[in-house]
Design brief:
Length: 435
């Protein structure tokens, strides 16, 4: 029976306020077992933190219990289809976690005006399809919201109308093809936004105070025209369509400290062009791990020199003379050890740092350029020769083939030059036929 069940009652005294935590997680318990059998053994009125993670509740109704002091309710990883707060006028609930459940919609009696103090709400990994304008209307002091991993079809443009205090918003993997322009307008205090793994192609209008943004796994190609002067961390990993990143696009993110562009499988161009050594003055972490980069132009040298951690691992590096400058940089040793060459053949699989610079040669570059030079020289020479030949022949020919007007005839005459005795041919025009 339940009298034998070990119930963890932890009493934490924090000044005058006592936190009473009841942890009943991962017991495979159904709601009947909790409400009917277990509840009489615990005085829930005093409990401030109730942890019911990893059980088999299919719904949660507050009426069967007394949760007057409850601040934190964790119902994650259950089978919830519904939950309600109906029986008390006002709750003190601050934290509610219903992630990893089976919620298809949020009932009107779930997030209502009886729970006005809620600050942290986790709705992630459910089956929600709509975030409409009334779902969160009573959540006026909400600071943290996650609706990640839900198959959402429709987000109303006024869904976050009343969330002026929101600081952290996770909308990753919600199947959104776009975010309506006014959606984030009221979120003036927002510092964290995750919109990763959504098939969006353009970046929405973002709250200006953002410090951390995750746009990984989206189809966004260009980042220009976004104004995020406070941004400190930007994640843009797994961007499948990205072929080129010009760091100049980040020129106005002067507070950026961490930039991660990992596993972008066709990203082959990574540059600062036109060169600008003042871009990203505060950067401390830069990662382009696992992309398709073969070489790095040395317009990146200033930024690499002053960035504490640079991660260039797992790219198909072509270790020729163009990589000598990377070799000379003192990148943080752990990552430098991991820059493996893919080509040319003789360096395949080698660590760049272990190849002496004199062995980083541009063979292909040279063999590529010499034939071109030789071809050009040959073509130019041929053109000159043909030109000379043409001029030589064409000049006299015009004279020979253009007889004088009238019936004048043209004939050759052999004459003996008294001074040189050479036989020369001269062109003589005579009025009469040959003598
Ligand atoms: C629970 O605690 C409250 C307040 O301390 C008290 O009034 C109530 O009688 C207790 N109930 C049970 C079942 O112990
Ligand atoms: C909610 O619970 C899930 C699963 O236990 C956990 O991963 C997540 O961090 C929790 N959310 C919050 C906001 O604490
Ligand atoms: C929002 O969705 C809930 C749950 O599906 C529904 O009860 C409510 O009527 C909807 N609100 C509006 C304005 O459509
Ligand atoms: C994305 O969300 C869907 C449900 O909408 C879920 O099945 C899938 O596992 C999620 N993907 C990840 C990577 O979490
Ligand atoms: C954003 O969400 C994705 C998917 O849920 C997760 O993998 C990633 O770590 C999140 N980003 C941040 C910065 O927490
Ligand atoms: C991005 O790539 C996907 C396939 O991975 C393709 O369906 C989509 O049209 C591409 N988007 C753009 C803007 O190129
Ligand atoms: C940065 O700001 C300047 C001045 O407002 C603007 O002219 C420029 O286009 C911005 N750069 C980018 C990449 O958005
Ligand atoms: C790189 O580090 C080595 C020793 O760790 C030092 O001898 C060398 O001068 C450094 N090079 C540069 C360019 O800082």
């Amino acid at each position: 029976m339940w009298s034998g069940v070990i119930v963890f009652l932890v009493l934490v005294v924090l000044g005058v306020q006592a936190n009473l935590v009841v942890d009943l997680s991962h017991r495979g318990m159904k709601k009947e077992e909790f409400f009917v059998k277990l509840q009489p053994h615990i005085n829930l009125t005093q409990v401030t933190d109730l942890i019911l993670t990893g059980n088999q509740f299919d719904s949660f109704l507050d009426c069967s219990t007394n949760l007057g002091n409850l601040h934190s309710l964790d119902l994650a990883e259950n089978h919830l289809q519904r939950f309600f707060f109906l029986c008390k006028d006002e709750y003190n609930l601050i934290y509610l976690n219903v992630s990893h459940n089976r919620l298809e919609y949020i009932d009107d009696n779930a997030l209502n005006d009886r729970v006005p103090k809620l600050k942290i709400l986790d709705l992630s990994s459910n089956k929600l399809t709509v975030i409409n304008e009334t779902m969160l209307e009573h959540m006026k002091v909400l600071e943290f919201l996650s609706v990640a991993n839900n198959p959402i079809i429709d987000i109303h443009e006024k869904a976050f109308m009343n969330q002026k205090n929101m600081l952290h918003l996770d909308l990753s993997n919600v199947s959104a093809t776009f975010f309506p322009a006014p959606l984030f307008k009221t979120l003036t205090k927002l510092t964290f936004l995750n919109i990763s793994f959504n098939p969006i192609e353009t970046i929405p209008i973002l709250p200006i105070m953002l410090k951390e943004l995750d746009i990984s796994g989206t189809n966004i190609l260009f980042l220009d025209n976004i104004l995020l002067p406070q941004l400190e961390r930007l994640h843009m990993n797994y961007m499948k369509n990205l072929t080129e990143v010009l760091l100049n696009e980040f020129e106005n993110m002067t507070m950026l400290e961490s930039l991660s562009i990992e596993r972008c499988s066709i990203l082959s161009e990574f540059r600062i062009w036109p060169p600008n050594s003042h871009i990203l003055p505060r950067l401390r972490y830069l990662s382009v791990e696992g992309c398709a980069l073969e070489t790095l132009n040395d317009d990146l040298r200033p930024i690499m020199q002053r960035t504490a951690v640079v991660n260039l691992q797992n790219n198909p590096w072509h270790c020729d003379c163009r990589m000598q400058w990377v070799n000379r940089l003192n990148l943080s040793s752990d990552f430098n050890r991991e820059i493996k060459c893919n080509s040319p053949e003789e360096h395949h699989g080698k660590i760049l740092a272990k190849i002496p610079n004199h062995e980083l040669i541009c063979v292909e570059y040279l063999t590529g350029i010499y034939p071109t030079i030789w071809a050009s020289i040959t073509i130019i020479t041929l053109v000159i020769i043909i030109g000379i030949v043409y001029l030589f022949w064409k000049g006299p020919l015009t004279n020979w083939t253009l007889p004088k007007r009238g019936s004048d005839t043209v004939s050759y005459k052999n004459v003996v030059d008294s001074s040189s005795n050479d036989l020369i041919r001269i062109l003589v025009t005579e009025d009469r036929p040959e003598e």
